Amino acid sequence: MTWKSVPRANFIFLHAARLQAHYAAQWLARAARACLPGRPGEHHTSLGWDHTFGGLTTHPLPDGSRLGLRIADLTLAFLDVHPQSLALDGRTESEVRTWLGAHIAARNLPAGKLDDPLPYALPDHVLALGARYSLEDLGDALAVLASWYSNADAALASVQKRLAAKKLKAPPVRCWPHHFDMDCLVGLPRGRSMGIGYCPGDEFCDEPYFYTSMWPEPSIPGLPLLPAMAHWHTYKFLAALAPAHKIVAAHDQGEYVRQFLDVSVAAALNALR
Q1: What is the mean pLDDT of residues 135-149?
Q2: CB under 8 Å to 143, separation ≥6 — which residues?
Q3: Residue 270: CB atoms within 10 Å
Q4: pLDDT tops 70 at residue 113
Q5: Cys bridge to 170: 86, 161, 164, 208, which one at CB 3.0-4.6 A?
Q6: 95, 98, 111, 127 from 131: Cα distances, Å
């Protein structure tokens, strides 16, 4: 996959689109918890990106289908030979639960655990209080959000393949419903690890960004200098960050991200020796 240029976006609308998409993605995680055997680290709830569908999807469910969330229009869909879908615009969470539960039951899959509480807290949003999904004024922002995820999946997968070719423990890139970020956690000798990832925005950086993190965190004074495209984030976690506003301003966005990942991964590997 080649990088598709991402246009500038109003970050207020992008923030609003991200929150609704984050809540919507929990239905994929709930379906995975209900239908799939548990795996360490909640890996059974992790999501993949389907470029053809334009959205996130679960691991295959027992009947061979996957449940997906198309980001550009917030539509839930079962992806198999008998596709069924639900546009979330104008729906409450309870209405989504009714639709999803009925279709899971019709497929002879267990639906009971759909109601289990999430094992983590989500950002506050009126959806949790019974409000309806609303895409009004968010169409462009959701399309931009979808582009970020699509580009991120391709960019991170390229790095993952290069690291795996070097015999490092670099698993496939997945999206994690808790933080709604994509990442590949690379296992290194002596219990050390490096995370390469993309986040659509959070309380630390309210815009999309790419990151490279390290564990254990090395001494801050010993960190190498990064090029102007990035900076070291040190509040509550340590990572090299490349924020969206710098990426969209680049002459070649894809090359800019590739350089950031190359430089930050090399810096992390050196710091974790």
Answers
A1: 97
A2: 72
A3: 11
A4: yes
A5: 164
A6: 11, 16, 23, 5
Q: Tell me, what amino acid is at 214?
A: M
pLDDT at 179: 96
Express each pLDDT in 27-69 by its tens digit.
999 999 999 999 998 999 999 999 999 999 999 999 999 999 9
pLDDT in the model for residue 1: 65
Give 269's contacts (C-beta < 8 A, 6+ positions apart): 188, 194
Task: Determine the residue type at 57.
Answer: T
Rounded-to-integer distance, Cα 100 and Cα 259, Å: 42
CA–CA gap between residue 40 and residue 95 (Å, rounded): 31
Q: What is the mean pLDDT of residues 148-165?
A: 98
Q: Is the pLDDT of residue 105 over 80?
A: yes
Question: How confident is the model over 66-96, as pLDDT tens digits?
Answer: 999 999 999 999 998 778 999 999 999 999 9
| Dist CA 164 CA 186 (whole Å) | 9
User: Which residue carries 């810096």 as its tokens?
Assistant: 267
Residue 45, C-beta contacts closer than 8 angstroms, at least 6 positions apart: 28, 29, 32, 33, 36, 58, 176, 177
Domain ranges of the chain: 11-129, 146-271
Q: Dihedral (C-alpha) 251, 224, 186, 197: value to the nearest 10 degrees?
A: -30
Question: Checking DSSP bridges between strand 75-79 and strand 66-70, what pairing results, if any?
Answer: antiparallel
pTM of the model: 0.96
pLDDT of amino acid 226: 84
The sign of the dihedral angle between the CA atoms of 176, 184, 41, 241 is negative
- Local structure of residue 190 (DSSP, 8 states): G
Whole-number CA gyration radius for the chain: 19
Asked if 240 and 205 count as a contact pair (C-beta separation under 8 A), the reply is no
Under a CB-based contact definition with an 8 Å cutoff, are residues 206 and 192 in contact? Answer: no
